[in-house]
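Q: Okay, next protein. This is Methyltransferase type 12 from Oleiagrimonas soli. I've checked the sequence twice, so it should be correct. Can you predict the 3D structure?
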Amino acid sequence: MSGYLTRELQVELGGHAYRLQALKDLQQYDDPDQVAERAGISSAQWSLFGHLWPAGRVLADHMCAFEIDGKRILELGCGLGLSSLVLSRRGADITASDYHPLAAEFLDINSRGNRLPDIAFHALDWPVPAPELGLFDVIIGSDILYEAQHVPQLAEVLARHAKPCAEIVITDPGRGNANRLSRMLIEQGYALEVQRMGFEPNETAPYRGRLMTWRRY
């Protein structure tokens, strides 16, 4: 990966070992062609996509036993793509998406590193309609509620790309924006189920982290 220092992570999930190429640290930033500037991503935020965060691991673990038969699945903010890799290994119909300009390259690297087929990828800018992306039975995401301004954008993305009968699964470490999204999804006809859990090793109750599932029948 030109311009960046990376490291390899080993993750055990569902009886399989996954190799992930990730950025070495949060200081990895190289933008000689002003790609970050054009995308509106600050130097402080640029490297966030390239790490495996606790919420991402929780979502990927949940996908190990998630019902996939006959379902078209979209991952939002895929980052390194661990959940998409898990679903791809299981034979799911999975499309990964992210706004970060490097996400597709890391997804390809990690797919090849795990001897998996290429995963469909869409560079998705939430405020911009993408009718070519189509509709999905399931939409998943991890730690995608970290900015309040993104919540209504996310609600619109879900409205545009969820089928009439759909399931939304989001893992969130407790950033404070989940209740607002839930109110918007309830207005769209969803019912919410919440499972509180620890996202960090040795974490004890009461847990801030949540696995949230919204279903619309």
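A: Here is a summary of the prediction. The domain at 52-216 is CATH 3.40.50.150 (Rossmann fold). The chain has a mean pLDDT of 95.
Q: Noted. On to the next one.
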